[in-house]
Amino acid sequence: MRDGLREQVERAAELDEQIERTDELIDEIVYDLYDLTDEEIAIVKPAVGD
Known about the structure:
By secondary structure, this protein is mostly helical. The protein has two helices and no strands. It has one domain (3-47). The radius of gyration is 16 Å and the shape is elongated.
């Protein structure tokens, strides 16, 4: 793989990780906002595709 392409692939992987962590943080904020219990979170997560 050429260096430029390799850098782009690595950068894309970094961005994917950042997006995933941001999604997790948003989920945590929403769970706190609605004061959900662990049991309720366990029900909600599969329903929203987590």
